[in-house]
Structure formats: structure tokens, C-alpha cells
Write a structure and sequence with these properties.
Elements lengths: L11 E4 L3 H12 L4 E4 L17 E2 L1 H4 L5 H17 L8 E4 L5 H10 L4 E4 H7 L9 E5 L3 E2 L2 H14 L3 E3 L12 E4 L13 E11 L9 E3 L6 E5 L4 E5 L12 H14 L7 E12 L6 E5 L2 E5 L5 H18 L7 E3 L1
Parallel strand pairs: 1-2, 1-9, 2-8, 4-11, 9-16, 15-17
Antiparallel strand pairs: 3-7, 4-6, 5-6, 10-13, 10-14, 11-12, 12-13, 15-16
Helix pairs in contact: 1-6, 1-8, 3-8
The protein binds flavin-adenine dinucleotide.
Length: about 325
């Protein structure tokens, strides 16, 4: 028997101010709930997986390997990003390939939708820095990207503006809080979800003014989707590996592959300065799908895996619809 929450005046405590918790706090605060967001770390958010992410909002590209539910949540989330942060860049994204990955490039084109094929001239017109670099490319015009280290503080600011309270350096557990509790602790929620695992993603931050890009560029790679994402002030993020380990070091092999991918996209990256190596653990359930777990007034939102930025807004909207109207989404929610 399903238990719904019919206590609109209950305080709402959200644990974890990463991308999942930040979107929950924002939508609940905007809906008039008394929200407190607890974050164990400080405002720099370096303990959050979200700090290390690429921030691509790419439901069409991800459809190559992800389940349809990710596309559904991702497409809805694009609307929510546009609504809440209208300055989010939606310049699309590009997919290119080395000639030896030609078959994989064609497979990628077959497995995905909403793209246009550009020839070399079309690619050069869109991204002048890539003129003459590739024979052709796939352009996904509806995709966007955010810079996690800028967008998390922006979301936190919006939560406060909507009347919510954020407590940094506040290490709490769901059982010690009253009212409605939404647990968004990511990989740290293993006390409640022993089946959660961390999937390491490594990244490198580099700086150069020799290359200008307006959108993420993915390079087809036999093992991982590697990409170069432009940030402000000549910075580029190179990402990301996907390794079944919870060791958070960056290996020489991964660094070579990430730097090699950038060099393939443009040789001028060879002269770029390396600013940072880093990695984060993507919180994943065994099926790699996100889950909203419901046990009375205790809700957990976890397993965002490699799609946190892409799907967090839609997950927050579903949680709010459950709390306010008892609405259940059978694909994502599990009720105890
Ligand atoms: C290299 C890399 C690249 C990625 N690129 C993308 C991408 O391009 N697009 C995309 O959509 N996704 C991407 N991801 C995936 C994305 O980063 C994750 O899905 C997402 O960050 C998970 O968010 P979360 O809020 O669940 O967890 P987290 O970001 O880890 O947040 C959990 C928070 O809870 C806090 N916390 C834990 N325990 C407590 C406690 N007891 N009390 C209070 N606070 C607590 C933690 O300090 C942390 O801040 C990438 C991931 C990596 C590693």
C-alpha cells in the first residue's frame, strides 16, 4: 500500500548540496516549503562529485549508451534549466572522430537522433578553430552545458532568494532530522543503500588562448566518450574516464588518453598549460539508473551516475509532485 505525504506545512530538510540536492532545494523552496539544505563540506564544494563534472546537458548524445529513461528525464530537465537559469548556454555539441574510429562514428550517428551531419566546411563555419581538422562531424543543436563550479553557487544563491536556508559544514544523517527529509548524499549514502558503488571519472583542466570553442566537442574513443569542454577565460575541461574503482587518483594512462584526445581535437592543445588533474566518484546503482526511494516522509534521490547535471532538475520536479500530490512515477520511484 502506498503511503503519500499530505503534510504541506512540514519542514523539508535536504541533505547534500551537490547537483541533486541543490535542485531539490530550489524547487521545494520556490513551491513555498520551509527548506533547509545541509551540506557537510564548505562552500567550495570540493567533496561533491558535482565539483568534478563536465556539466554537459546532452540527452541526445547520451542516448547512444543510456536507457530511454535518461532521455526522458534529460529532455524535461533542459526545459527546467532554461526556465530557472535562462543564461545557460544552449549552443549544441559536436561529435568528431579520428579516421580509424570511422565505424564507431557511424554507429554513434545511427544510435542517436536530432543531429545534423556537417562537412568539413560546415564544421569550420561553426567552430573556426576546427577548420580543416576533421572530414565531417555530427552537430546536436539542442544540447547545452553548464560549468559546475559556477552553476552550483548560482543555484545556492537562487535557493536563498526563494527563502531557503543553506547550512554548510553541517554533517547530518536522515534519522536525526524531523519533517520531510530528502537524502541527496550521493556516494556517502551507502549506510542506507549498500548496493551503491562509485564509478571513477577523471578529468584535467587546461588553459590556452590558442583555441576557441563555443561548445563541447566529443571525440569518439574505443573505451570512453572523451570530450573537450570550453570554460570561461581560455580554460578547457578534458573528460572523462569511467573506471570501476573507488580509488580517486588519476593514472598516467588516463592522463595520456585525455591529453591525447585534446591533442587530436587540436594540436595547439599540446602547448596548453595543465592546471589541474582530478577525479570524482559517480554514485551508481547496479543498473546505473537513478532512483527516488520513498519510505513515508523519508525520501532518497540517488544513483545519478554519469547524468547528474542532465537529470537532477526533472528528479526534483518528480519528488515535489510526489510530496504535494502523491504522484508516483513508476519508472523512477521505489516505495517501501
Ligand atoms: C569527471 C566527471 C564528469 C562528469 N560529467 C558529467 C556531465 O557532463 N554531465 C552530467 O550530467 N553528469 C556528469 N557527471 C556525473 C555527475 O557529476 C554526478 O551524477 C553528480 O555529480 C551526482 O550528484 P549528487 O548530488 O548525487 O552527488 P554529489 O555531487 O556528490 O553531492 C552529494 C553531496 O552530499 C554531501 N554529503 C554527503 N554526506 C553528507 C552528510 N552526512 N551531511 C551533509 N552533507 C553530506 C557531500 O559533501 C556532497 O556535497 C560527471 C561526473 C564526473 C566524475
Amino acid at each position: 500500500m502506498l503511503q503519500t505525504i499530505n503534510r504541506p506545512d512540514s519542514p523539508v530538510s535536504i541533505i547534500g548540496a551537490g547537483i541533486a540536492g541543490a535542485w531539490q532545494a530550489l524547487l521545494f523552496a520556490q513551491a513555498g516549503h520551509a527548506v533547509t539544505l545541509h551540506e557537510r563540506g564548505d562552500e567550495a564544494m570540493t567533496d561533491a562529485t558535482s565539483h568534478w563534472a563536465g556539466g554537459m546537458l546532452a540527452p541526445y548524445c547520451e542516448a547512444e549508451i543510456a536507457e530511454p529513461i535518461i532521455s526522458r528525464l534529460g529532455l524535461r530537465s533542459l526545459d527546467l534549466w532554461r526556465r530557472e537559469l535562462p543564461d545557460t548556454p544552449f549552443n549544441g555539441s559536436l561529435v568528431v572522430a579520428h579516421p580509424r574510429e570511422r565505424n564507431d562514428f557511424e554507429r554513434f550517428a545511427r544510435m542517436t537522433e536530432d543531429h545534423r551531419r556537417l562537412d568539413a566546411a560546415g564544421l569550420g563555419a561553426l567552430e573556426p578553430s576546427l577548420e580543416g581538422r576533421f572530414r565531417d562531424a555530427l552537430f546536436f543543436p539542442a544540447e547545452g552545458h553548464v560549468e559546475p563550479r559556477r552553476v552550483l553557487p548560482k543555484l545556492h544563491e537562487r535557493i536563498r532568494a526563494a527563502g531557503g536556508t543553506i547550512k554548510f559544514c553541517s554533517d547530518v544523517t536522515p534519522s536525526e532530522l524531523d519533517g520531510i527529509v530528502i537524502d541527496c548524499r550521493g556516494i556517502s549514502a551507502r549506510d542506507e543503500h549498500p548496493q551503491l558503488r562509485g564509478v571513477k571519472g577523471e578529468m584535467i583542466l587546461i588553459e590556452t588562448d590558442e583555441v576557441q570553442l563555443a561548445r563541447p566537442v566529443r571525440l569518439i574513443h574505443p573505451r570512453w566518450p572523451l570530450y573537450v569542454i570550453p570554460r570561461e577565460h581560455g580554460l578547457f575541461m578534458l573528460g572523462a574516464t569511467s573506471i570501476e574503482t573507488e580509488d580517486t587518483g588519476v593514472s598516467v594512462r588516463s592522463a595520456l588518453e585525455l591529453l591525447g584526445a585534446a591533442y587530436t581535437v587540436h594540436p595547439a592543445f599540446g602547448e596548453a598549460r595543465i592546471l589541474e588533474f582530478g577525479s570524482g566518484l559517480r554514485p551508481a546503482f547496479p543498473d546505473n539508473l537513478p532512483r527516488i526511494g520513498i519510505r513515508g516522509g523519508r525520501i532518497s534521490v540517488n544513483g545519478l551516475y554519469r547524468h547528474g547535471f542532465l537529470i537532477a532538475p526533472a528528479l526534483a520536479e518528480l519528488t515535489l509532485a510526489y510530496v504535494e500530490r502523491g504522484q508516483i512515477d513508476n519508472e523512477v520511484m521505489q516505495c517501501a
